[in-house]
Amino acid sequence: MIEEPTSAHADHEKLVLPEPPAELLAALDRGEAVAWRQPLAIRTYEADAPSVYPMYLDQRVYQGSSGRVYPLPFTEGVADEAVVREWDAVHLENEYVRLVVLPELGGRIHVGYDKTSDYDFFYRNNVIKPALVGLAGPWISGGVEFNWPQHHRPATYLPVETSIEVGEDGTVTVWCHDHDPFARMSAQHGVRLRAHSSVVELAVRLHNRTDERQSFLWWANVAARVHDDYQSFFPEDVGYVADHARRALTRFPAADREYYGVDYPGLAAEHPGADRIDWYRNIPVPTSYMIVDSAQDFFGGYDHAAGAGFVHWAERRVSPGKKQWTWGDAPFGHAWDAQLTDGDGPYVELMAGVYTDNQPDFTWILPGETKVFTQYWYPIPGIGVAHQATPDAAVHVDREGEIEASFAVTAQQAGATARILRGDAVLASRTHDLVPGVPLTVAAESPDGLDEGDDLRVELLGASGQVLVRWTPSIAAAEEPWVAEEPPLPDDIDSVEELYLTGLHLSQYRHPTRSASGYWNAALQRDPGDVRTNLALADRDYRAGDYGRALDRVDRALARLTRRNANPADAEAFHLRGLILRRLDRRIEAEQAFGKAGWDGTWAAASGLALARSLASRQQNRAALRVLDTLDGIVGHDTRRIALRAILQRRAGEHAAADALVADALVADPLDATLRVLAGRQIASDAGLMLDVALDLRDAGALDDALRVLGDAVALPVTAGGNVRPIAHYLAAQIHRSRGDDTRAADERRRAREADLTWAFPFGLDALDALEAALAVDPDDAVAHSLLGMLLYAHGRRHAATAHGERAIALGRADAVLLRNAALAAYNISHDDARAQELYERAIAAAPRDARLRYEQDQLAARVGRPTAQRLDRLRSVEDLVLTRDDFTIEYIRLLVAEGEAERAHRILLERRFRPWEGGEGQALAAWDATHDALGLARADPPASLGEARAQYTPPAARRDDGSTDYFATSLPELLLFARETGDDGR
Predict the structure, then answer these.
(1) Are 678 and 410 in contact (CB under 8 A)?
(2) Which residues pair with 397 in a beta bridge?
């Protein structure tokens, strides 16, 4: 049996932070904030290299929405032993607070330390120990993770570009920047410390740098180390909390019903206070709750044992989301804690959501739009939980017996006055010089007849009389809020409008198991000309690269929309038509559509830029500038528009003006990649980022610059973030051919065919167009067929994808990735079981030591009805490979048990270490129980090496008895690569 480490690992030590560099000490002594870059050595369990196979996990239920991960490579394993690794780290410090940001892990805050209380107000995990919880695999606990455009951040285990900004006022900001791996939208978050302040400020800029409307969510995932005396606090006007997707509600802070299978009122009947779910100790099972309806801007957590905690504050108008998540204070949760740390934890997550109050809850961002918002956190000393808070101060009001108010400030406040008032009567007042880390308390006798509606207030005033924080009694709403319901099936919906809106909801919220298409198609069966539905389907077809079909739909919508009104209130249809026509290379018609869309203020910015780019690409430079002139100063900030103007100015010989324009823009947006390339500055060695810049330059007609940047992208090493080399070559070939240089175009296509294809998972319309352009010239390019098959499968055009994969095989390509992809398509799309099995045999012949291939082959065997004995016999000879994967090992154990070899299964379970994975909880435990049952042994708790413990309740089954999927399922652990597809979704 495996020997297990003690709860505190023998090598586990607290992470020691370095002293600030000598040249920064003087500024720190003056009370200013400082920042510097210095690697941090941390014990690390390294993530495995990602799988070389694309993962089409569209129907994986992940955090309540689709777990789609393509085109990101998917990581499936983590090392069992730790090594000491130096991580790139940026340190921020002032007289009150110390922070560490890790750029290589998504720009997360890893350490948040209150110097005044000697307390980590953010959970400091002293090891980097990922578990398979993230969207793309590895994820770590601790600190603050910034989740966007989906939860848990797709790039959470990828590097971000980072720069340090130092302000003249003693403020420092560490800017972190990435382009999301899916839509390639740009996100920047700046971690900021100001002089003489304990506030940690986060400035965020989300920019939709695409031409399409996109959906997104944004949550700050803050971890706090917890124990029996840790309490989460929310505003006092919060009366209810909701589960994911508002599937269920309960009262808060005392749960008044069963929640996540726990009978809280029953527990409280035996143990008073056990229904209080604001205390970690009372929650025995994995549990989320998000507040419902608060008019307040703050929440946080407080460690009663340490006498310290933290407040989060953000304007509720844009940041209503306030959430707690815990694995649960019970063996099941503790087992997950052990997967994520060696000797720290447990923890809870206290999460802040922007433009959302639930998960999944996606909102929209228009093309070209930039959303800007700010979040604040600060540590609080021994005041207790905050009952009201602002960025200046927090207050706790004790109303048991006398009224006692305790205040904590975030900056020095000389001559501040703390008061307790009832009406105009001052019950108590105290004036004092306040500093962060030292609370101030004022007390008064409780007035007779005090109740929740009383005109009582507690306030802290600055020396000039400004209100730093004010508390008044709050009454939580008594009315129970709404709970989400499963939408009816299309045949059970009466109106076209409801069919359209239901489809829109499924699309916007990325529902994993129910398609919007069924509702939209039903709507068109009843009203073929419905404008909204035709546009929704046109948008879907356009994003799939099915331009002809998309144009037919948008023209049908426009026929009705403009039948009596040539100038509709919403011009989105014209914008979409312009995008489609541009892809069809009908440039003049596209420009006309963009011009018409610009009549509508909503679409003026997006269509204006698209029009100006199109004109610039045709060297209609003065016309392009005139379009930009109509936009600047009227529509929102868009760095793409600035870059285009600079390119046009340089064409006109106005180099000084262009340089000044770019330099000024970089002051406000220092990490914009295209602007930095135009300024001659370096950008991160990120091939995907360079590809984005090259496309910006190409679309502006700066073809020489685009080719140069594509060359730079090709020269970079292939990383776990993906491989753009072959697509960069195909894009370069497309540019050369557009200029009439067929020789160079052919050379680039040759280089694409010869490129390393590891992790080359093409995605997006530019890649699709480049591949189709290559095949138009050379229909026998097997690499282009193979890559296009992958791309189309991810875009939902799976019949076409199947044809391209088979064509690549017919042309002689026989690599394992192609053969495996074709096998999936044969089973899922062609429904040809024999062909699927044949292709897996050929794939394994090409890569006989590939455990994933063997696992998928066995999963296919199960689906086509191969006997368990036959499956087991095939695996015996490669048992060493089988045992390299948790999922494969568990399946192997099931086969052993089924064939009467439970003793061998039992030995494997005792000798091997397992790691649970998000959505696969309970799999190893089920195998453990089945083995004990087969051996006639009493069921026993598993060893710690199994990686999980028994849950105290059974979550609702994702699959119903009739085989259908629960609409609100939160996990679906089956291997979802194998799913038969029929109808329009597999087109």
Answers:
(1) no
(2) 405
**Tokens, residue 741:** 């240089």
Of 652, 304, 293, nearest to 475 by C-alpha is: 293
User: What is d(CA 357, CA 219) in angstroms, rounded to the nearest whole number?
Assistant: 10
Please state the φ and ψ torsions of residue 318, each to the nearest 5 degrees: -115, -15
Mean pLDDT of 120-139: 96
Rounded Cα distance, 666 and 661, in Å: 9
Rg of the chain in Å (alpha carbons): 30
Q: Quick one: tokens of 529?
A: 């000309």
Q: Which residues pair with 41 in a beta bridge?
A: 86
In 10 A of CB 816, how many CB atoms?
20
Residue 976: per-residue pLDDT: 76
| Angle between helix 516-526 and 496-508 (nearest 10) | 160
749 within 8 A of 730, measured Cβ to Cβ: yes
Pick from 763, 749, 836, 773: nearest CA to 583: 773
pLDDT in tens, 769-786: 999 999 999 999 999 999
**What's the pLDDT at 400?**
86
For residues 806 and 956, the answer to whether their CB atoms sit within 8 Å is no
pLDDT at 718 over 80: yes
The SS3 call for residue 413 is strand
How does DSSP classify residue 382? S
The three-point CA angle 238-244-245 to 5° equals: 95
Asked whether the predicted pLDDT for residue 244 surpasses 50, the reply is yes
Mean pLDDT comparison of 140-144, 152-156, 974-978, highest-scoring range: 140-144
CA dist 814 to 71, 808, 839, 840, Å? 22, 8, 10, 11
Q: Which long-range contacts (CB under 8 A, 24 or more apart) does 881-887 make?
A: 881/849, 881/851, 881/854, 882/851, 882/854, 882/855, 883/908, 883/912, 884/851, 885/76, 885/77, 885/851, 885/852, 885/855, 886/914, 886/915, 886/917, 886/924, 887/855, 887/917, 887/920, 887/923, 887/975
HEC string of 164-208 equals EEECCCCCEEEEEEEECCCCCCEEEEEEEECCCECCEEEEEEEEC
Distance from C-alpha of 130 to C-alpha of 145, rounded to nearest angstrom? 13
CB neighbourhood size of 269 (10 A): 11
Sequence-distant (6+) residues with CB within 8 A of 898 are 868, 872
Structural contact between residues 807 and 785, judged by C-beta atoms closer than 8 angstroms: yes
- Say if CB 913 and CB 80 are below 8 A apart: yes
Q: What is the pLDDT of residue 960?
A: 74
Torsion 682-688-689-694 (CA) sign:
positive
What percent of the chain clears pLDDT 70, i.e. is strictly above it? 97
With tokens 């990383």, the residue in question is: 719
More confident residue, 980 or 724: 724
Q: Which amino acid is at 127?
A: V
The answer on pLDDT for 1 being more than 60 is no
Distance of CA 93 to the CA centre of its chain: 28
The residue among 316, 376, 381, 321 whose CA lies nearest residue 351 is 321
Please give the pLDDT value at position 439. 98
The CA distance from 107 to 165, in Å, is 15
> For the residues 566-574, what does the mean pLDDT come to?
96
Query: Cα dist. 415→286, 418, 429, 460 in Å?
Result: 47, 10, 12, 11
**What's the pLDDT at 502?**
98
Structure tokens at 221: 């995932």
Please answer whether residues 429 and 419 qualify as being in contact, where contact means their C-beta atoms are separated by less than 8 angstroms: yes
Q: With beta carbons less than 8 A apart as the criterion, state whether 313 and 298 touch.
A: yes
Give 687-740 as a 3 state SS string: HHHHHHHHHHHHHCCCHHHHHHHHHHHHHCCCECCECCHHHHHHHHHHHHHHCC
Across the chain, what does the average pLDDT equal? 94
Domains of the chain: 22-220+291-323+352-380 (2.70.98), 397-471 (2.60.40), 822-986 (1.25.40)
